[in-house]
Amino acid sequence: GLYDSSLVFLQLLFTFCVVCIFTFSSTVKELVQSSIWVYVSAYIVFAVVVVPLSLCTSLSRRHPWNLIALVVVTVSLSYMVGTIASYHDTMTVIMAMGATLTISLGIIAFATQSRYDFTLCYVLLLILGLDLLMFMMTGSMSHRVSPEDYVTAALIIYLDIVLIFLYLLGRR
């Protein structure tokens, strides 16, 4: 619904800002690349929070703890993605962000129209040029969630889009 879409938008906006800062600021880039322990710490925090958030409905449905956990996941993953992006050429990062935005907007536009059931259109996605890995990340993870699971839905969509970005960044 609108609430999980707003959450995903805010998560992606924050991640985009972190990636831009880590990519365009040479001072931040050098600091991040010389502090690998912060990356490892962010990875540990991400893993410790995302697993219970994904698996325990008692956490993912308990307000405000679900939102606090989602913020922790977003901040830690944004730091990790920004660090990874800092090791790549600036133009490569810009192209990967643009491609991710285009793919995401295309999928959102297609999914929000009501004439077609998005879950039945895997072949169309493949024909439109989405490569096999992107297809598997977004197409085979069809989830039906109840309205109480807005944090889980936002987490699934956010992680899928970040994985698309990292996949495209790695393909350079």
UniProtKB/TrEMBL annotation:
GO terms for biological process: negative regulation of apoptotic signaling pathway. Keywords: Membrane, Transmembrane, Transmembrane helix. One of its GO terms (cellular component) is membrane. InterPro entries: Bax_inhibitor_1-related (IPR006214). It is a multi-pass membrane protein. It is found in: Membrane. It comes from the Eukaryota. The keyword Transmembrane helix applies. The chain crosses the membrane at residues 7-24, 36-55, 67-87, 93-111, 118-138, 150-169. Belongs to the BI1 family. This is Uncharacterized protein. It comes from Periophthalmus magnuspinnatus.
